[in-house]
Structures are given as C-alpha cells and as structure tokens.
Amino acid sequence: MSLMQMFTGKRLDRGLHVPDHKEATQHLPIRRLPFAPTLVVPLLQHTGAPAIPIVREGQEVVRGEPIAKAGGFVSVPMHAPATGRVTRMTLAPGPRGDLIPAIYIDPYQSASQEILYGAYQDIEQMTPEQIVAAVQETGVVGLGGAAFPTHVKLRPPEGKPVDTVVVNGCECEPYLTTDHRVMLEQAAEVLHGARIAMRALRAGRAVVGVEDNKPDALKALREALGGARDIAIESVAAKYPQGAEKMLVKVLLNREIPSGGLPADVGLAVFNVATLAQVGELLPLRRGLIERVVTIAGPGVRKPGNYLIALGTPLRWALERAEIDPDASSIILGGPMMGSAAASLELPITKGVTGILVLAKGASNGHSRIYPCIHCAACVDVCPMHLNPSHLGLLARKDRYEEMETDYHLADCFECGCCSYVCPSHIPLVQHFRVAKQMNRERKARA
Amino acid sequence: MKAVIEIRTSPHLHSGRSVDSIMRNVVYTLLPICCYSVWLFGVSALLLIATTTSACMLVEHLSCRMSGKESSLNDFSVIITGILLGLTLPPGLPLWMAAVGAFIAVAPGKMIFGGLGFNVFNPALVGRAFLQAAFPVAMTRYTHVLAPHRFTQFIPSTLAAPFLKPLDTITGATPLMLQKFDHITTDTWTLFLGERAGSSGETCAILILLCGLYLIARKMMDWRIPAAMLLGALLTGAAYHLSNPARCPGPFFILFSGGLMLGAMFMATDPVASPVTPRGMWIYGLLMGLITVLIRFAGGLPEGVMYSILLGNALSPLIDKVTQPRAYGERKLKVVTT
After folding, report:
1. Interface predicted TM-score (ipTM)
2. What residues of A are in contact with residue B13 (Cβ under 8 Å)?
3. Percent composition of chain A: helix, strand, coil (DSSP 3-state, to 5)
4. Between B125 and A326, the higher pLDDT residue
C-alpha cells in the first residue's frame, strides 16, 4: 500500500473517474415487472456446461420448480420463472447473435404465482460439502455479470485454503444501481449469504467493499451487521474499474491475484453482493433462482429504474414497460464500459444481465475519426492492470499478436475499456485486444 | 421502435477528448508567446513565425496530396510545428532560410515517416538542427530587443535574398553567449521577464512556464517530462555551480536562460517522440536536463537544449523498452535450478 493511500483512504491507483449517471435510478426502490406472455429460459445462462432439461413440451410447471438439471459440476440447474405451460423447447437467440437451446414457458395469467417449491433447511447443521451442493441446487451464478456458478467458487482447489471472503459492493459501472438497491433493501440477506460462503469455505472473516458514492448502502450494511465482528465493511473511494475482482482485492487487502490465477491463489474468494443476497435468501428455503434485479436506464428510456424481472423475460417486454424511446437503436446489456450491445430485442433476460441501457446515438466513440496513436500515454496512465495499451495497440496494428501475449501481458487485459475511453485518437484499443486474443487462441488451437 | 439496432463493441462511452482539440489548444497556448515575441522583436518576428507556419502547412498539405492521402492539416499538429520552429529561430533570420527550415522540418522530419504519430524526432527541432548546420552564421546572429523602430522597419537580414550575404545587423549576444564567451552573467530577473536577446520565442521564461502550466492543468500535456527536464538541469547546474561558483552561474540562471523553458515545456513534451511509460518519462526528462547543462558548460556550444532533446527523442523507444511497467499480478521469473 502506497504512502498516498494511507492519507486518502482505500482507493484504486489507476483507472479513472467516469461520470456515473447513477442519480436517475439509485433512489428508486426495486419494483417487480409483470410476467411477459412468453418467457424464454436458455439452458446456458452461465459459464460452463449447459443445463439438461427435465420437462417435456406441453408440461405444466409451477413457479420455482426445477425444469433443467445441472450438466456437470461447472453447471447449474434452471427453475421455472413462472407457473405456466412449457410450449416449446427449441433454439432461442443468444447474446452473441447465436442460437442456444431454451425452454419456452407461457405463464398462466390467472395463476397465483406463489412459490410452492422448497423446504426449510438449517445451515448450521450442514457440512461445507452439503452447502456447496445446496448452492448448486439454487442455480445461483455470479450476478455481477460474469455468471460463473457460485458453488464452484465455494470449493477452492486442493491445497489453497481461503482465509477471507471478499464481498464486492463496488458497482463501479456507470448507470447501474442494482447492487446499490440490493445492499439497501436486502442488507441482512447479503450478510447472511456472506456467512454461508464463509462457512462453506471455512474462512474466518469477510470483508465487504462498497464505493463511497453509496453512503446509504454502507449505513444499511453496518446497521444490519450490528456489533458482529466476523465481517468488516469498508468504504473505498469510487473509481472505475474498482469492481473488478483483481482491483478490489488489491485495494481492500493489498493482495495481487497472480497472472492467470484465481483469488484462491492468494487465499480469497470474491462474490458480488447480489449473488450473496440470493444465496442468503434462497438457500435456507431450498429455492431456486427465478428472477433478478436489473437496472433499466439511459437517455433512451422514460421510466428508468430497478426492476425485479423474471428470468426469461424478453428485452422488448421489459423495455416497453420502461417506456423506451421509439427511435432508440443502441441497447446495451450490462454497463456502458464492459457491456455488450444487444443484437436483438427478442433476447431473454438471463442470470448475468445486470442492466439494460438505452444509450443516445453517438454516445460511443464509433462515429469519430480515428487518428494515429500520438503516444500521449493517457492509456498507460489509466490501465488498472499496469499494461502498456499504447504499445499493445501498435503491435496489434502490425498483427504481432504473439508478441503482445509473450512480451506485453495481453492475456492479463480484462477489457475494462479505460484505454479506449481516454484515447484522444479514438483508437478502439479494447477491440484490437479482443481480436488479438482470439487470433492467439486460434493459433494455439492449430498448433 | 426502429428496426435498426446498432451493434458496437464496448466501451460504449468515450471521454470526448480528441487529438485535434488537444493540438488546437496547444496552438492557442503558443499564441501569447508569439505575441510577446512580436512585442520584443517587431514585424520581423511576426513575419518569421508566419513564414514558418504557413510553409510547414503548405509542405504537409502537398505531401499528403502527393501520397494520395487526405490532407492532415485539420489535426492542427503541423501548425504547432510551424509556430515552434519560428519561435526557436533568431528573430532576424532571413525568411528564405526559415522556409527551408520549415520544409526540412515537415518533409523529412515528419511526413517521410508517415505523418503524425510516426515521426522519430520533434519535427520543429529537425528543421532547426538543419538550419544550425547549414547556416551557422545566420543562426547565431541575435538582435537586440525592443529596438526603437521594430514595428515599422524589418531587421535588415530578414528580407535577405537567397544565397546572398545578408546585410549586416546590429547584433546582441544572448545571455548564454555572454556567459560562455565573455563571462558576463545576466541577472535572473531579466531572464525571467525575457527582455534579452535570444531566439524569437524563447526569452520570457515566466510566460512560457504559465502557458505550459495551463496545458498541464487542462491535462493536455504530461507534467512529468517538463518537471524531470527542469529538475535534471537544475541538479546538474547546481553541481557545476557548487564545484566552480566563479565560472558557472547558479541553477536559476540555468533554468531561465536559453531555450530550456521553451524546450522543456513545448518541445520535449511532443508526445510522439517521447516515452509513454511513467518511469521512462522521468528518465527521458532527467537525461535531457543533464545533457543540456553538460553541453552548455562542457561543450563548445553556448546552448544545448536542441541537441539534448533530439538525443532524448532518439533514445525514447529504447527507454520505453527497458521501463515497461510491471503488470498487476506479474509472476516473478522463476529461477531454474538444474
């Protein structure tokens, strides 16, 4: 930790201050969205193997009932997001413009939609192994956007004990306020989820990191914590991309996750607050993940807010409820710095969707003239991984992809977008790096 | 809802900063320095700066045309080159020489490498270095400041015809010349305010410093390079001064004399020809400060800013290579034991 940090509190050394635009939604309580006429539940909403369906076409399902089982350890089951009928089991549009197998459910509009599945279970009586299995049954994955199955992180590799659970409440992406609202409205569940994770990992303590632009969330968590000493709640100075797990563990605990390694390599496991809130809420009741909080915001919607949306709800349905501008054409899933443009409005909302942004035209750098790199070093000064994006960009221009990886740490770039954001030449650096990584993967596959 | 959906890759936001706006602001920042130069040296300085700037623009435009590219005048970088070249030349330099310098600065100094972003050296200094080598006499004839008829009469040498012996001018020595050859030290206050002989735009240290600080405050220039260069010169100057106070003037004389302030603020900071790594910037700056003072005190020339910056430019790719930042989570090299 540098001398500077001792005086200024915990803060990220690189990165940047992006106008956060959170004021439009951060004060709005979470509201539930009505069910769409058809819900589309893709069997692959997470990182890992797809789930295997256990229902037939035409079958009636009850809200919360398992409809697909995990397709392996790195996989999770799916649960029916609504009481209704399975109408089709076919391909549905995927986020990358691809097609993925999905279960179509038409909710019964007159059903009570009460969750009947599940039973109380006492966490205190469960072994860590039982907790891991139970978390897998809930279908919870990383709700911060990565969608990595949570139970896998609860079983760290052999010989790498986890001493501290890190709880990520930074939410550094502009516009997004889902984690903020979850911390405010479900502070007790967040802490309960953290304690379940500590129990599963046999970790002695947890540290919650919350950016200082959410003082009310900090207060809510501290109140929920009361006098307990097992969890520390830390305020960190707001800066993008502090919510990236590598950044947060450095800021909070001054540990560096080695290149290509996992948090477990430095004795840590990192979870997003919304993920833990779901674990804390669902696990004691043995229920499954069937809905999530999504921020719908941006200049192109008239009713921005935080909506509790049934998984499988098509974007079009959700955006129409938020009164999208009819001329809007740029729709982003996730935050504006790392999110991806939605290829279709028929895409279903899945477990990894943190936000839906409707941006104004020309908000991106896509329309500006691209100048040559003038070596101004703005990108070097913001890269949170301490890479040299300027030189990487020049190498990419010359197709020297292998050198980018061997000599300039290309593989460590997590595409936070800081370099592209600041580049006065408007060079799409992050896109160059994505292409370079793909070319390297293909080269290795050929070899 | 429209049928058309735009698909772009992240990030979907941009800071809004742009090369042309940065370059345009540098041009604005140079204007006060130009105005002061005209106040000191009159219409000759005005015509000199106008000549170098327009010649540079013309050469860049024509070379873009010749290579079939879109004209790059609208990125404003060549205007900076033109103004800076004018500011580093003696105010009474014959205009035809200035035009030759402008051609050298832009054609072989910049465009031959591929234009903006690809030049190895600061183009303005390439032009000046050529003139220094080609016309050593004209390049060391400095005019007195605040001549009485400076706004109505040209300095006689300004309008000299090409390849003819220029008319004799009443010349004044620069403070560095006085110090080196006559052992007369000009007082720091005069240097600070700039009412002394010298290149047309290098004289007023305080004005250049303020203009540079403005760009730094707007985050359009990196503070580390000028800070390192001035620090390097200050430290080296202090060492010389302490070892031989009678012969070598104090470090403030070093800082405010010659072209050091202009060089450190506006030449060494040319991003294209300087390192990008944080440590590299410090090494580059300190090195240039050191070499500047070494040339002044130990070399044959009264001034060393130009050569030190050109040398720094040449070294900057190497400096970058050896000062790559340590990446987050970079594994230490494993020691292989056999």
Report:
1. 0.90
2. 18, 174, 336-337, 363-364, 417, 421
3. 30, 20, 45
4. B125
